Amino acid sequence: MAYVLGIDIGGTHVTAAVGVLADGTWKRPTPVRLRGDSDEAPAVLHVDPEGALQVGDPAERGPVLRPGVVAREFAGRIGADAPVLLRGERWSPQTLTAIVARRVTDLVHDREGRPPARVVVAHPATFTAHHVSALRAALADVGLAAEPLPEPVLAAEGHAARGGTGARALAVLTIGGTGFEASVVTRTNPITYAVRATRTGAEQIGGADLDEALAHHAYDALRPEIGPLATDAERHLRILHDLRAESRYTREQLSHAGEAEIILPLHPGEIRLTVTRDQLATLLRPLLDHPAATLARAVAASGVPPHHLGGVLLAGGTAHTPLLAELCAAHLPGVTILPPGGATLVAEGAAAVAAQLAAGLHDAPPDTGRRGTAVWEPEPGQEPSVLPAPASDGRAHTPDAPPRPPVRISTPDLPGRRRTRRAQGMNASAAALVLAVGAFAPGIPIG
């Protein structure tokens, strides 16, 4: 059965989605389970003791003390001159990003028994023609014919594919593990969007910063219990690693619960700290107000009046934080805050656009809005607004990267999430969490 693939590689995690062709109709995209119990997998590459380049985070087994063997947060550095060093070898960020995309594609290929008809890969809306060309060339170098497209456009497409109203303009805040991007997208024709304006903040706030704030709070509260057990530097590092991991899980639990526990495993026993949603909001408010304020500035720069927006769309792994929606509503009063799209929304939108490309609805990939063709008009009966023309963005040629030696890519077994928080008495467990593809839910036609 023919299918298309969408891939979103963020600062900390990668997600993917597929859309299948059944009875002549491309079905609604569904997320790919990239590891046993999650639609997300670490966007991390590391060199194992045998010298093979592996996808996955060795720190999930414990702190990694040796420098130069792990590459993180490379997707946002595409096009930069500074290479990433892995055991003395220089890698461009776009090559590492392309390797992760190729690995995901190969895993889906193995499951489906055939290659995808089309592949779309997300990239930040702030990318220039140079960045996009560098990414496209790196994808081609690893043998992947994929089309890079902006994240906010794909988030809007994912919202539409899920049955969302086809608004003429949307404010989109994508916030992941290491940063955020605030954009306004507008419809260029009935089936696609383009970027009208985009902004990033002076400080790049992401989920990791929120986890760090909660971990600091927990460390201060548990210092009397932790202090006597941190007998050496390595043990102390292990405790801090576990505390950060627990803080992330607890923060996610507080997206839908009034309180949750940080459970820090120690030998012997464990220590616990209860955190309420109100306590978390007090910790996170100064951090999350910055992305919300930046979104309001992006709306002002777009020229689209706030009351003409079809809503605020929150996407990314941090989108479900209730405080984020509250702060966006405060900065954009009267604008509807749409249900958060979550970590897989961009990947689903990428698969939806890939289906449009496969169906021949576009002669060429949808325009990003950075070349002067984005058009916004008010709804019939509403007053017109004078909008500035989007800036022209000529595409400069990017030289091909020098040939690289063959890369051996393998995926290690990684430990999984050890328990459901409310299930008492459940011991920590390890699961083999290779980048494996799970079952798909039945789809519905797009559009």
Description:
This is Molecular chaperone DnaK (HSP70). Keywords: ATP-binding, Chaperone, Nucleotide-binding. Residues 362-424 are annotated as: Disordered. InterPro entries: ATPase_NBD (IPR043129), Hsp_70_fam (IPR013126). With 447 residues, this protein is of the alpha+beta class. It has two domains: 3-172 and 342-410, ATPase, nucleotide binding domain (Nucleotidyltransferase, domain 5); 207-280, Actin, Chain A, domain 4 (Alpha-Beta Complex). It contains eight helices and 19 strands. It has helices at residues 93-112, 129-141, 151-161, 207-226, 233-253, 277-302, 322-331, 345-358; strands at residues 3-9, 13-22, 25-26, 30-31, 41-42, 45-47, 53-55, 70-71, 84-86, 89-91, 119-123, 147-150, 169-175, 180-189, 192-199, 259-265, 270-276, 312-315, 409-410. The strands form five sheets. Strands 1, 2, 3, 4, 5, 11 and 12 form a seven-stranded mixed sheet that branches. A four-stranded mixed sheet has the order 8-6-7-19, with helices on one face. The protein has a four-stranded mixed sheet with strand order 15-14-13-18, with helices on both faces. A hairpin with a 2-residue loop joins strand 14 (180-189) and strand 15 (192-199). The protein is globular.
